[in-house]
Each structure stands twice: as C-alpha cells, then as structure tokens.
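Bench notes, afternoon.
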Amino acid sequence: MKSHGSALAEDTKVLDPAVAKRLVSGSMALAIVGVVLSAAAAVTDTKRFAFSYLTGFTWLVTIALGALFFVIIQHLTRARWSAAARRHMEWMSGILPACIVLFLPVAVLAHDIYHHWMGPDAANDHVLHQKAPYLNPTFFYIRAVVFLAAWAGLALWFIKTSRAQDKSADFRPTARMRAGAAPAVIVFALTISFAAFDWLMSIDPHWYSTIFGVYVFAGSATSSLSALALITIALHKAGLLRKVSNVERQHDIGKLLFGFTIFWAYIAFSQFILIWYANIPEETIFYRHRWEGSWHVVSLALLFGHFVIPFLVLLSRHAKRSPLVLGAASVLLLVMHYVDLYWLVMPNVDHHLHLSWIDLAGLLGPLGVGAWMLALQAAKSPLYPLNDPHLAEAARIDNP
C-alpha cells in the first residue's frame, strides 16, 4: 500500500476546509429557502403542491438511486477504472437516508395524489376492486418503508465499508463490498421497479406498463451520470484529482452518459410503440393525454432535449473530452430528467400545461436538502478511496 500512497502523493486527498465550509453553508441556505417555499406552497394550493412535490422528490431520489446502482455495479464487475468516480457516486447515494424524511410530505398528501384508489370511489370501480390487494393504503406505506429502508441501508453500508478501506492496509473491506454487490443489485432492481409502479404509475391506476420500472431506471442512470460528470468537471477545474482522474476519465464518464442516453430513448420508444401498436384504449389514454393539447410541446421537448440533442452532441469524442460541452450536455439531461418526471406526474392534475411557482417550490425543497447532504458527504470524506486495491492501476490508466 505504500506504493499507492507514494504514487499519488501530490494528489490532494480532501477538499480545502474553507471550500468545504462554503459548500456546506451555501447548500444549507438553499435547503432552508426550499423548505420555506415548500411550506408556503403547501398552504397556498395543497393539491397542486402534492403533485409538484412528488415530481421534485422523485427527481432527487432517482438521481441518488442511479448513483447507488453505479457503486453496486462497479463492485459487482470489479471495475478498476472508476476509483475516483465511485467515491463521488457514494456521495450522491448518501442522499438516500435523507429521502426517508423527504418522503413524509408524500405520505401525508398521498390521498390527494392517489385519490383514484385511496378515495371512497375506488369501492365502486371494478378495476380498482381487482387491484385492491396491492393498491391499498396500508400495503402502500409498508412497501414505501421497505424501499426507503433498503436504499438507505445499502447506501450507508457501502459508504461505511468504503471509508473503512480508506483506513485499512488490507483489502477485506473491498472484498466485502464485492461479495455484497450481487445480492444488492437484486434488491435494487426489485425496489426501484416497484417504487416506480407505486409512486408514479399508480397515480393513474387504470393505466399500466410492464416496462415502466426500466424506464424510470434509465432516467435514474442518465441523470446520476450527468451529475457525476459535473462533479468531475468541477474537481478538475479546481486542480484536484490530478493522478486518479483526468480528461481520460472524464471521457469514460461521457461515453457512459452517451450510452445511457440511447438506452433511455430505446426504452421510451419501446414502451410507446408497443402501446401504439396494440391500440388498447386502457393503455393509449396515457399518451393521448400527453400528445394532445398543450402537453404536446412537452412531449416534443423530451424527444429532442432528452435524446436527439444530447445524442448528437455526445456523439463526438471531442465533446466528451471538453468540460464546457460535456458540462452543458449534463445540465441539459438533468433538466430534461425533471421535465420527464413532470410529464409523467402533472397531466394527472392539470390536463392543460400550466406552469406555477408552486412547481418550483416542490423542486427546491428536495433539491436544497439533497445538495446539503451531498456537500456534507464531500466535506467529510476523502476525494477518492485512498487504499483501494486498484487505485495505483487506475492512476496508470489515466496517466499512461
């Protein structure tokens, strides 16, 4: 392990305390503003806020889940290139414990969001009566507790074990994470799929899609890689991670982002074309609400903003290696991930596109808390896993 340390001796291992303090203070201020605005929005229009907050909450939790998936899959495949990137994804996955608290407004306002099957009219609906063993408030809340506890437990376990590797000269912590990755990925796949069914698809309980969980996962992976690209670019700009990460690693992240952009489009098109071809009214009603009237503009924005433009931009090798171009594409994809979730949620409360400050409040609350948790993670941990068994090899890959 001494060779690892000497090879990376000139690389800064932690953020400058002054910089870390500014990050934490600024993100905490954003969290306070977001919480205050959310409270004001909840009082002003409770029903609108319920749907707006659900959109903001799922935007944050899916980004954190994409980061958790990245951490799990890197250990599962024993990847050697991703030492620094894995640490930054650990920071993002560290948001998941806070999502337990952030879910409370969704739980409190659930009867406004899921009124179709939580309300009294469900008893007179034959379809909902058949789905009642699954779609009922008690089971819904039990599943939510299981999802959130599983995600928080996995995130905290990987973070804790990774920090243990920072302090250990042997590789047993890494071996434990590799052994735990296989069952973790199964838990992850099941929980994210059923959470997508519960929190998003069941808003309209008469509509269903068996590919919906994969669709939400695709957005999670794309948005988390976008956030990772921005973190990497910011650290490079600050002159950090000169050994374990440079433009080559940025290029690799750009390639992954490009791949998952295509994957999201493939899943979105697969879901659409199967429903269009079958032409079953219970299924086509979902797209009819989003293709007619003012929501048509949002549907086109998703097509071009979530796929066509980032696909054409990231197709170039130069774009993936350019901090400016990759950063702009990453910001666009993060924005479009929110638009995607807005497109999934808001037509259920507003059949005509109508933007409101309440939508911004519903986003700023989760965003502020998430940014604060991310800043706390970045401030208290090394910038990369110090004693990772493949750290020196990752440095050689980046610096041939």
